Amino acid sequence: MSEPAISNGTPRSSRWLVALPLVVFAALAAIFWFRLGSGDPSRIPSALIGRPAPQTPLPPLEGLASNGTPVPGLDPSAFKGKVSVVNVWASWCVPCHDEAPLLTELGRDTRLQVVGINYKDSADNARRFLGRYGNPFGIVGVDANGRASIEWGVYGVPETFIVGREGTIVYKLVGPVTPENINTTLRAEIDKALKAGS
């Protein structure tokens, strides 16, 4: 008596179950690509919009001075009553070098204060960076371990926030300030913030 023939392939339903995780992964990857990858990364929403700026004090950048006076670190009370542009940057960040001249220009606007959060950097390199491009920041807080940047919801440097007069985050720009977005987006959002509390 001969043995029954063994089926050469697996049943269709088993093959489908094996392929299902791959199909789900491909679908999710496509969604993320079209929502984030192919779009403008600066449009990634922030959960902090409309919320108070983080109340984390940061020490000053050691040895940094402006006109012979030490540049202060970040005291969260500095946000009250002023429109602030907060830029998270590092000397090792390539796009930060590209945006630095634009921030230096923005720092000349006396209607607002420009605040820097130096992210996981060495003091010498950070001072050299500011010496090379000019220091747009009236305040520079050092985030040596990256914890404060997590509180700000930073995805990666550079990122720029606008904080309104009440100390509330009103806008977030993910990625560098560029010649294209400084006038079309960033300055427009700054003007909105300046008008909001006047």
Structure write-up:
The strands form two sheets. This protein has a five-stranded mixed β-sheet with strand order 5-4-3-6-7. Strands 1-2 form a two-stranded antiparallel sheet. It has 198 residues and is an alpha/beta fold. The protein has helices at residues 12-37, 94-106, 123-133, 147-151, 179-196; strands at 65-66, 69-70, 84-89, 113-119, 139-143, 159-163, 169-174. It contains five helices and seven strands. 32% of the residues are buried. Strand 1 (65-66) and strand 2 (69-70) form a beta hairpin. 37% of the residues lie in helices and 17% in strands. It is elongated. It has one domain (41-196): Glutaredoxin. The longest helix has 26 residues, at 12-37.
Question: In a nutshell, what does this entry contain?
Answer:
By secondary structure, the chain is of the alpha/beta class. It is built from 5 helices and 7 strands; from the N terminus they run αβββαβαβαββα.
Give the overall silhouette: elongated
Provide the helix percentage: 25-40%
Sheet having the most strands: 5 strands, mixed
Encode the helix/strand succession as letters.
HEEEHEHEHEEH
Mean pLDDT: 87
Low-confidence stretches: 35-42
Q: What value does the Rg take, in angstroms?
A: 24 Å
Overview features:
Glutaredoxin; two-stranded antiparallel sheet; 5 helices; 7 strands; 17% strand
Give the helices and strands, then pairings.
Elements: H1 12-37, E1 65-66, E2 69-70, E3 84-89, H2 94-106, E4 113-119, H3 123-133, E5 139-143, H4 147-151, E6 159-163, E7 169-174, H5 179-196
Parallel strand pairs: 3-4, 4-5
Antiparallel strand pairs: 1-2, 3-6, 6-7
